[in-house]
Amino acid sequence: MLGAFQDAFVELAADATLRQAFCQCPETILDRYRLSARERSTLLAIDRDALERYARSLIAKRRDEVARVVPLTRRVVPQWSTLYERWAANHPARGLPPSPSPGIAEALRAERALFELLLEEPHACYAAELWCFEIRGAASRRDGEIRELRTRFDLARIAADVARGTLPIDPVPCATVWRFEVELVRSRPA
Amino acid sequence: MSALAGIGYRARYRDALLAADGPRPGVLEIMPDHFLGHPALERTLDQLAERYTLVFHDVGLSIGTADTLPRNRLREIARLVRRVRPLLFGEHLALTRSPSGIDLGHLAPLWWTQEQLALVVEQVAAIQDVLGVPIVIENITSPFSIPNAELAEPEAFTQLVERTGCGMLLDVTNLLYNARNQGVDPAPLLARYPLAAVRQIHIAGGVARGREWIDTHSEPIEDSAFALLGSVARARPALTAIVVERDANLPPLEDLVAEARRAVASFETEEEKPC
Question: Which residues in chain B are closer than 8 Å to A13, comparing Cβ atoms?
Fold first, then answer.
């Protein structure tokens, strides 16, 4: 079955955990798929170093696309790319949100997961909110859909500071609700 | 008729392209996903279509996937085709998702069996029926080849063209980098493709990382890619357009248009030589 072959091939390319298990015990992993003997032997014969390089290139491509969406978050969290790569390597994309930009689609997919990771120390207390602020702003500018975000800090001021090269330390909380539209961002106290 | 010198549309170039006195490429290549379903963006596309000849280029139909085509998406693309009437619609001979729905976010090579070829023939015929515009299918950079194949990609292209009547979108840079990465001479590899069926050409600049060449679409085009255009020209294809692809390190629009014009000139210089 060509379909089973493609499922196995794509899942191996997209899922680092599966790939690791495949390297350790390939026959067991392939038993999950209804493969012919020829398909099975073909998957076993694929150059595993090349497959690993390809898998990493897929992650790197998506990372670069997302990076263009969140330039300020990257300044605040220099290890952002590592966080994203670790997450993406084990979370294959199943149906991306519709978006006119692959970077925005992937950022929307990763938004919740990386928000949780960025809430943790040692990241700046506003890093997680800045991540969402940038993604939703970029998405609404691009597709015109109205999005909202509730934050603990004045993200517009923080974003302006970061853009100027200043990283705020312990900003004063200022709970705000943001409304992102195609050409402007509105805010009101939460 | 001369081939049109084109560039891939990027939002950053929108204002310059719509300006009355801006540099004018002969054709704009449009990715339907960048506009589909967003009224403001579709109006921008209308404005571009009033000023430029368009070709469409898609990355999301995944024509190699052993599953039915995404019908809703195809219908939406057809609506956009009727709206702005591009000269060609291009897709890749690749897959980007599995039948179970995992999206790779990029192009993956196909395992060339007769079953795979029959499937692709069926998908391309179905796309032609729905879109009603000439289809061109593009060669990709292959990060590796899948073993135990029943036919090689150039032969798969030849059969696809013969069985469906589609054209080929030849990416000369992909071909050049595949040749380098496989350690073979690009000219004989190029000659195995159905060059008479080439209707559109892509050309771009990439980088070498370690021993591997990657089509990053981020650099100026190198001379060896321009040189391959001559080999294509000698096959006398009915070429519609040569499009420069650039996704990063975007230069000023006039520089990109100049690269596209140089590519067409390279092609036509060779085309005009007697056989």
Answer: 104, 108
**Which stretches of A85-152 are assigned E, i.e. beta strand?**
93-94, 147-151
Of A3, A11, A106, the CB nearest to B105: A106
**Residue contact A47–B144, C-beta within 8 A:** yes
Residues forming beta bridges with residue A150, ordered by sequence position:
A177
Does the predicted model carry a pTM greater than 0.80?
yes
HSE at residue B169, side-chain half, CA atoms within 13 A, is 26
Report the distance separating Cα B52 and Cα B18, nearest Å.
10
Residue B275 has pLDDT above 60, yes or no: no
Instruction: Assess B66–A contact: CB distance below 8 Å, yes or no.
Output: yes
DSSP A152-175: SS-HHHHHHHHHHT---SSPPP--
* Interchain CB contact of A181 with B (< 8 Å): no
Q: A30-34, A119-123, B102-106, B141-145 — which one is most confidently predicted on average?
A: A30-34
Predicted ipTM of the assembly: 0.91
Has residue B240 got a pLDDT over 90? yes
Name beta bridge partners: B200. Answer: B169, B241
- Closest residue in B to A91 (Cα–Cα): B102
On whether any CB of chain B is under 8 Å from the CB of A61, the answer is yes
Dist CA B244 CA B108 (whole Å): 22
